[in-house]
Design brief:
single chain; alpha/beta; Immunoglobulin-like; Rossmann fold; 2 domains; 6-stranded mixed beta sheet; 5-stranded mixed beta sheet; 26% strand; elongated
Amino acid sequence: MACAQAWQPGAWVPGPGASMPHYFSGTGCVASGSVRSSLTDWIVEAELHVGGIEVDRFDWVPGEPATSDVPLEVVFDSTHFPNGMILQVDIYGWSHQGFVYHASGTAQVVNRIVGFNLPEFLMVLGGNGTWQLQQEMAGQNYGFHIVYHSGWSHADVGLALENAGVFYENSHGGPNQFQTDAPDPLPPPPYLYMFGYGGDPVLDMHERRLVWNGAGIPPYNSGGMPPIHFGQFDSCESGGTWPSPPPGDNSFAHSLFPHADTNWPGVPSPNQAAWTWKGYTDIKKSQNQVWWVYTRMRDGRTAREARDIFVLLNNHPDYKHRRVTISETGVWNTFVPVTSQEQVPVWGDPYTRIKYVYTGTNAILLGEWYW
């Protein structure tokens, strides 16, 4: 014989029967809670706080229907808070009969940018993309792991992928790989492959993400580390060779594991995207490429908005000093200004944000960190 569960007054964060996420990472974090009075009483006021800041509330208006159960929830951007902070979520409730309810939960804020730059590019004016990345994202509550020293290897990238909300690489590459600076690669050349390289967790970036993720879907994955929310793959042909058909799949997008594998190639993974180049890129334009991406995205623009603004303005006379060129033929003396969206494929969710709250649309909520 089945029995109904007894009604229990109290407060819960995140809610009855639910558990706290292992971390808060990205612009689509969820904070929630619930308060309940006895069935002979009702809630007159409730507040949800994130980091001590009230973000949602309920107020009963006399004359309106009363309720004994009030859930509250917001979506928020973890980069409103410093990387590494232990963030507390609180819910408070007050009942008509004067009872006060409170519950809280905590999780660590994980905001991290990982960048790798081939050292040889530093010898080329404009080739230090990782330096530009740090300049553009300074003061945005991200921690940095930037590598441009000689000898960085597949293993170095693999370790850094343990925790990389934003990932950037500036290297030589192809449709399924980019080059490390490994001094003694096995096998040569020293490529790190994106997907499908025999399940090798050292040479295959997708497999390494699988290891760090563990079982389950973020932010409840057993590995306790966030996925890559946004990747900029600044290497030749990361978006495919030219010409090639616009497929519904891309090897670099698989680095967004596990969401990409859960939804790909159907519905794009929420709030995860990969920025790539369809053709050959110019080392001298690396810093310009970073400038175009992050000056827009740090202001709350989505991945697609940043790409579309770039394409619109890249050939404008006012931005000649920031112009980015690409070669569709693979010949190094035939670089032309990027002028079409097809040259800059953005894979995954076009509405991905790395700053300010994710809405699943291009809706402008600049300056807003929750809703």
